[in-house]
Each structure stands twice: as structure tokens, then as C-alpha cells.
Write a structure and sequence with these properties.
globular, four-stranded antiparallel sheet, about 240 residues
Length: about 240
């Protein structure tokens, strides 16, 4: 059996693996058990009862975290003539069209979020095999296909902490909700915002239990189970 480090063992010794913690207690424990030498990301992982093979059981949406993610987001915008100046003035990191598409096809991926105006989807469409698996393909459901006039607002929200969530093929949802350097109340507020959005995104076609398990963790820390009922009733501040 592999030997775990002392840091690993100390962190895991603080967590009762058979217990479901109240949300506030889980947040405190995540911060306490994060002992890596860098500012770890706090993540939430949700196991749902949906069947992602069915189009009417998709869980997907966007939410702006009140305290941001703690990350510096590199924003790329595909924009036509009407949106170029809007995106540049709003502070997008990269703005263009065919030139950006060619760079991406050549293997360049130094960005975190992709936005596109509707007229540029003819260009973006051929990047599906590259952007799709990375969860960065613009789409109406994710709010990342944006009218030129709306670009400044969406770019600002993305900078502040606008995140997308979507169910994966194993029926799980994974969302970053801050850094361990945040105050516990800030992480809890971000957690509450995502939970409210996820509950609102429940597909009407789902039968039985919608949310089976809620777990909080840090990048290098142990998974901490959260009481599902308590998490499900959290509301954004």
C-alpha cells in the first residue's frame, strides 16, 4: 500500500468520513484541513440523480459568485465589427475572429473563458473539438454567446466571479467557489449562491432524488460531506 505523507494524514485525521456536516462547519473544516504551501482552491462536488444521457435531464447554468473565485480570469472574445471595440474597452484579454481561431487550432490555449457574439459562431463552430471537451465552447445555455451591446456587462461579471456549472457524464457537477484564504463567510456565501442556482436548474424530467451527495474540498485536502438537506435550502445572500 502507498505511504501517505504526514501532511496528508494530519489533514484527513480531522474529518469524520461517516458524518455529514452542516454547511458552515464544513467550510470551516475545509479551511482548517488545507495545509498545502499554496493558496488552495475550494471546490464543491455534487452527485446528482439525473441521467445525463437524456437531453431533458441536463443540469447547466451560470452564477456570479458574490466574492469571486480568487482567480484572475483570462477572457477571450470572438467578436464581429460591432463588438470589437466593446470587448476591448471592457478589458477582454484577447479579441478577434479568424486570427484567434487559427491560433487555437494551432494548439494555443492560454485563456480561461471564451465569449462570442452570434455573428462569430460560424468561426467558433469549427473549434468544437478543441473547446468542447474543455467546457469552453460558447453556448446560449451557458450565457457565453453574447450580443455585442451586452459584452461589457458579461465581461465584468466574468471578472467578478461568473462561473458556469454543468453535469458531466457521471452525473456529477464540479464548481470552484473560492480560495482557502477567503473568510469562511465569503466561501459560505459563494457556496449558497451556487446551491441556489443548482436547485433552480433541476430538470422537470428528473424522477426520484435530485441531489444525492454534496462534498466540499480544497485542492489537496480531504473531501468533506455536507448535509444534503441543509445544503439544498441555502439561499444566496
Amino acid at each position: 500500500m502507498p505511504k501517505h505523507s504526514k501532511r496528508y494524514n494530519v489533514a484527513f485525521s480531522k474529518v469524520d468520513r461517516n458524518k455529514q456536516y452542516m454547511p458552515a462547519a464544513a467550510v470551516d473544516l475545509v479551511r482548517e484541513s488545507a495545509t498545502a504551501k499554496f493558496n488552495e482552491t475550494v471546490e464543491m462536488h455534487l452527485n446528482t440523480g439525473v441521467d445525463p444521457r437524456h437531453a431533458d435531464q441536463q443540469v447547466r447554468g451560470v452564477v456570479t459568485l458574490p466574492h469571486g473565485t480568487g482567480r484572475v480570469m483570462r477572457i477571450l472574445v470572438f467578436a464581429g465589427a460591432d463588438g470589437l471595440s466593446q470587448a476591448e474597452e471592457a478589458g477582454a484579454d484577447y479579441v478577434g475572429g479568424e486570427d484567434l481561431a487559427q491560433r487555437i487550432q494551432g494548439g494555443w490555449l492560454d485563456f480561461d473563458v471564451v465569449l462570442a457574439t452570434p455573428d462569430m459562431m460560424r468561426v467558433v463552430g469549427r473549434l468544437g473539438r478543441v473547446l468542447g471537451p474543455r467546457g469552453m465552447m460558447p453556448s446560449p445555455k451557458a450565457g457565453t454567446i453574447v450580443q455585442a451591446a451586452e459584452l461589457p456587462r458579461v465581461i465584468q461579471e466574468t471578472r467578478l466571479g461568473r462561473v458556469e456549472f454543468r453535469v458531466d457524464k457521471t452525473s456529477n457537477v464540479h464548481v470552484p467557489i473560492g480560495k482557502v484564504s477567503f473568510e469562511s463567510e465569503q466561501i459560505l456565501n459563494n457556496f449558497s449562491s451556487v446551491m441556489e442556482a443548482v436547485m433552480a436548474a433541476k430538470p422537470s424530467a428528473v424522477k426520484g432524488v435530485y441531489l444525492k451527495r454534496v462534498t466540499l474540498t480544497s485542492t489537496m485536502g480531504p473531501g468533506i460531506r455536507v448535509d444534503v438537506n441543509a445544503a439544498s435550502t441555502l439561499m444566496a445572500a
